[in-house]
Amino acid sequence: MAHAHVSWMSPQGSFKLRAAVLFEHEGQVLLCRVDEKPGWYLPGGKVRLGEATRVAAQREFREESGLEVELGDLFLVSEGVHTQMGVQHHEICYYYRGAWPGGSEPNLAEAPIARGHTFQWVSLHDLEAKDFRPLDIAAALGASLLTGAGTGTEAASAEPPMGVRHVTYRRVVH
Prior knowledge:
Elements: E1 7-10, E2 13-22, E3 24-25, E4 28-34, E5 44-46, H1 53-65, E6 70-84, E7 87-99, E8 117-123, H2 138-146, E9 165-173
Parallel strand pairs: 2-7, 6-9
Antiparallel strand pairs: 1-2, 2-5, 3-4, 4-8, 6-7
């Protein structure tokens, strides 16, 4: 059975609701690339109609990596509007902190990775060179990691959450 996503396209533009996970380990974040799409992203994808964003983030990572993960706090919501060739595209994404399964050392070498997906650990300082998308959220990722709020292999932090950040950005792509 096909699942309807919270997204649409028309000649005037498109809309997508996404959910993604931030994994941090020793100053690096886990990025995902899909063969037919440009750039690298935090692992995640489209939310299904009627699905909570937290559940969507867990499902998407499981579908992409074959691994079950625990999610921590929602720490970022981004709204991006970009115009490409005169057509507007609007995307909203909910970002959650992720804890690596079983508190183990992050390793995807033996995971059943979905076809067309590639994962790589990348330093926060190398996101721009890696063609990270959307680059507009990199500062919010850095602020989250600098506060010690990331949950790489450890259990949820004993420190109170720093709150959810909201980032909006607009781009015109030629």
